[in-house]
């Protein structure tokens, strides 16, 4: 006798779906990280079989096919008639030779952000006794970070920044600009390319500045200043100061804002581009989780919502405004004030 079956379209609760999604999430990254580490994406610009790649990389053939199938499940690689090829939308981001490649950036951020459950427990019990990856509050960390930041700036951030800057009413009149806590020379070079009449000063920790000297040696329009924004001379007479994700290191944010205001000429403009957390420090998830590893080691780093705007107003900036922006690297807050 036939049995009538009318299955539901969807079983289980939203919470159950969420928990299984969380269970799978780390595997998504690990599969991608393995492909980046091996450099497989560089060889998938044209269709290749699993056997061909296994032979080239001296890997197990069956395992290579499993890995490639997993990459297909992630949507970054396509499969057709046994041949694998990186998806067209991901190709420029995942191949190492592309101008907008994120391959080294993703690997670097994986090192900075990810931490094992065992290490989280160890950090919770005694963070002084645990060494897990680079530490953001140490200058030597930034020396290692310059390469990763350069990739981030060049491939993702700078196009957003240049769109913001070029849309400012004051932009045509800017002749001297400070990139505070630049992290790389990338933005300064993009500004010089778009506006050859602007002199740009990069201010950052001495370890970062040392890493940048060779990169800008031939460009007289870019100057370097090494120091601590909390106490060292920022220079003067700037038309615009750009500060991107740098205020984690302000010991007294209002005091630093005062130093920035005095470095600007009268009427000069500060632009802060920073992530901010809600009042409970529980959202947005991208920033809360992304900073967890660093904050377990060093204490809270991210600033809370409205903190930058309030400090700028308290330091004497006029017409302080803020705007929320959605970006591939999370929601960002743009704060603009006039000296």
Automatic annotation (TrEMBL):
Which BP terms from GO are recorded? methylation
Give start and end of each O-methyltransferase dimerisation domain.
Answer: 28-82
InterPro entries attached to this UniProt entry = COMT-like (IPR016461), COMT_C (IPR001077), COMT_dimerisation (IPR012967), SAM-dependent_MTases_sf (IPR029063), WH-like_DNA-bd_sf (IPR036388), WH_DNA-bd_sf (IPR036390)
For this protein, the record's SUPFAM superfamilies field holds: S-adenosyl-L-methionine-dependent methyltransferases, Winged helix' DNA-binding domain
Full protein name: Methyltransferase
Q: What PROSITE patterns does this protein's entry cite?
A: SAM_OMT_II
Q: Which UniProt keywords apply?
A: Methyltransferase, S-adenosyl-L-methionine, Transferase
Organism listed in the record? Microbulbifer celer
The UniProt record lists the O-methyltransferase C-terminal domain at 173-274
GO molecular function, one example? methyltransferase activity
Pfam (any one): Methyltransf_2
């Amino acid at each position: 006798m036939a049995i009538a079956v009318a299955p539901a379209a969807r079983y289980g609760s939203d919470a159950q779906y969420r928990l299984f999604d969380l269970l799978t999430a780390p595997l998504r990254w690990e599969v991608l990280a393995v492909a980046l580490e091996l450099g497989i994406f560089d060889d998938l610009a044209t269709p290749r079989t699993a056997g061909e790649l296994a032979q080239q990389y001296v890997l197990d053939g069956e395992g290579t096919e499993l890995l490639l199938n997993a990459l297909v499940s992630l949507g970054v690689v396509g499969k057709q008639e046994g041949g694998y090829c990186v998806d067209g939308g991901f190709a420029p981001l995942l191949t190492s030779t592309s101008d907008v490649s994120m391959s080294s950036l993703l690997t670097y951020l994986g090192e900075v952000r990810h931490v094992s459950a065992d290490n989280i427990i160890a950090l919770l019990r005694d963070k002084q006794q645990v060494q897990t990856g680079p530490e953001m509050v140490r200058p030597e960390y930034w020396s290692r970070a310059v390469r990763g930041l350069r990739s981030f700036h060049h491939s993702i951030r700078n196009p957003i920044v240049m769109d913001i800057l070029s849309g400012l009413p004051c932009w045509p009149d800017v002749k001297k600009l400070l990139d505070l806590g630049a992290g790389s020379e990338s933005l300064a070079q993009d500004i010089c390319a778009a506006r050859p009449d602007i002199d740009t000063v990069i201010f950052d920790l001495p370890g970062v500045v040392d890493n940048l000297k060779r990169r800008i040696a031939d460009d007289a329009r870019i100057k370097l200043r090494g120091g601590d924004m909390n106490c060292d001379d920022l220079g003067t007479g700037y038309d615009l100061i750009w500060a991107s994700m740098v205020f984690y290191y302000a010991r007294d944010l209002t005091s630093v804002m005062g130093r920035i205001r005095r470095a600007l000429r009268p009427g000069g403009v500060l632009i802060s581009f920073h992530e901010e957390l809600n009042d409970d420090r529980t959202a947005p998830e991208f920033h809360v989780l992304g900073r967890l590893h660093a904050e377990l080691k060093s204490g809270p780093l991210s600033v809370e919502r409205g903190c930058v705007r309030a400090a700028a107003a308290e330091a004497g900036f006029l017409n302080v405004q803020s705007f929320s922006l959605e970006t591939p690297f999370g929601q960002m807050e743009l704060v603009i004030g006039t000296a």
